[in-house]
Amino acid sequence: MWSLTFAPLVPLPLLIGLAVLAAVAAGMALVLAGRSAILRALALAVLAIALADPSLVFEDREPVKDVVAVVVDKSASNRLADRSQQTQAAQAEVERQLRGIAGVEARTIEVTDQQGAGDGTRLFEALASGLGDVPSERVAGAIVLSDGLAHDAPATAEALGLRAPLHVLTTGREREIDRRIVLVDSPRFGIVGKEQNVRLRVVEKGGPGRAAITVRRDGEIIARREAIAGQTVQVPVRIDRGGPNVIEIEAAPLDNELTLANNRAVITIEGVRDKLRVLLVSGEPHPGERTWRNLLKADANVDLVHFTILRPPEKQDGTPINELSLIAFPTRELFQVKIKDFDLIIFDRYANQSILPLVYFDNIVRYVRDGGALLIAAGPEYSGAQSLARTPLGQILPAQPDGSVFDEAYRARVSEPGKRHPVTRDLPGSEAEPPRWGEWLRLVGARARSGSTVMTGPGDRPLLLLAREQKGRVALFLSDHAWLWARGFREGGPHLDLLRRLGHWLMKEPDLEEEALRASARGRNIEIERQTLGESPAPATITAPDGSVRTVPFEAGRPGLFVARTAASEFGLHKITTENLTAFASVGPENPRELMEVVSDPGKLQALAEATGGSSRRIGQETGSGVAIPRIVPVRSGRQFAGADWIGLRISDSGIVRGVSISPLFVGLIGLAILFGALVAGWIGESGRRFKREA
After folding, report:
1. CB count in 10 Å sphere of residue 362
2. Eight-class DSSP state of 379
3. Distances from the Cα of 182 to the Cαs of 339, 405, 568, 603, 688, in angstroms?
4. Cβ contact 400:394 at 8 Å
5. Phi/psi at 352 (5° precision)
6. Of 545, 537, 587, whose CA–CA distance to 564 is shortest?
7. Which of 290, 451, 543, 662 has the most CB atoms in a 10 Å sphere around its CB?
8. Please, what's the b/e burial string for 192-208 (b: 16 or more CB within 10 A of its CB; e: otherwise)?
9. Distance, C-alpha 229 to centroid of its chain
10. Tell me: the pLDDT tens digits for 165-174?
């Protein structure tokens, strides 16, 4: 390819000035001297051209193809109904037409919702990435095959950064039907025992305008109500326990609905206990009393009420009651009026000394069975006639005293069930034999009758028993020497770990449930943990968001813990069940953006496409299963690249320069000869005309 270039020998402003002066001089000469000055003007022009240093340039160019991006949406929303089939048929037709256009290369870019890490369909990020190695002048256009639901669409064509037309061919059908739940306000934390309000709105297209909604907490139905489409609804949810409370809100499905995945919204509300109220009743002053008090007072989340019986009824010394500086034990207020306000009641070396009437023990039994917690830290009094086991409490205690008390040194041991129980599992020092902790010096003899014996004393006698009583829990410590560990007697022991776990188990800390199922998602993988006192749990059944069901076996981990890992097939809430336990794992965001809005719409990207000279239209339908795609035509000039039945591509005729040769026109003898010839021609012409006038 030949072209003419200039490389001025003097600065361009000076060259322009000289050319202007030469033109003015030539014009004046023509006016004054007439046609005789033409050769002089020609000489001046040749001089100006010589100073511009013109050259002939020949470029050896290799033509290159323009690139057309074919963006194929393979996200979850574009797989609904028959959109996948539409997309495949449209892609085949587009690629067929592009193969028939010379100088055009089709580049297919596939987009999945996983590329957006759960943040919807990132069409334009994929487009920019797919064309990152192509110069902008070589991009002939982009043809997008999608349902029109892109979650990263730029606001303007300038922000898009595409200097070629964008054409959107939209899948789907007219008059699609769908119903979805939109969360307006959802709390992340809540106080246990209190209600939190979730605000939501039902949005539907093609529905009757009213929808029945169901509210579930951890898989259990807690409310049903009706909502009017488009109106905000407030749903109160009671936070039932500490830790994660998974709340599902589901709207009833419509006939022929696109998907049911967006009929359900999921919220995880972390249950936080405001204050744990603990009642500690010490039957008499003793060294271990301070251990319990210090442990409970050290926890800022515990509101402790502590009473020590200093003057039992049988102790009579003649001092008038009104002269005693002791606080009267408010038995009626504590054990009848406000007993339900406590999360845990502890009797520490308490003997039945007629301070509490039997009716109050009945109240404690009801309190436990209704969901309360009771801990008995027993001393020698538990084996005598005043034992709490001889009160109505005996019907819920896991062991009955046999009348013996062993005052001898021994090392407490974790039993076989205790090695699997979360209260005593992995207790520091228990892994050795004998255990690496100090000795205790007393054990109250008792016969276990219920619950689990998690620690034993000499002769494998029960030391610590844990039991469930209907909705509540009971713990029985058959020794009052845990304080020896706290004082460092013979190197002490893990009293903080043991007593803190014991208290938290009684107050239903989720992590300390002996029969529990937990699930979590890490990336695309689901990790399931089964905590059990058994030895071989049943496999876990996983229900995916699309309704598919599969089972995964557990593998043994630490004692009492079994684990299973599996890859999730899609984003969304997965339900995991085994035996009578249920857990949930949300892969990706709890409410995937990809499936929030699924009704296809060519208008979503229409303004952006038209701003580039392109178009957005729905894929037409032919007879049978085929699709109708507009004609694709090359356009070499103009700003409009779409018509009623066609879409255009910007053709640039680009090429790669393989070599360049330059031939200067006014260099050396050639340039001097041309300039000298012009001057001589002007002089001869002027002399000839003067000779004629003289003749």
Report:
1. 15
2. -
3. 42, 65, 25, 22, 99
4. yes
5. -75, 95
6. 537
7. 451
8. beeebebebbbbbbebe
9. 28
10. 999 999 998 8
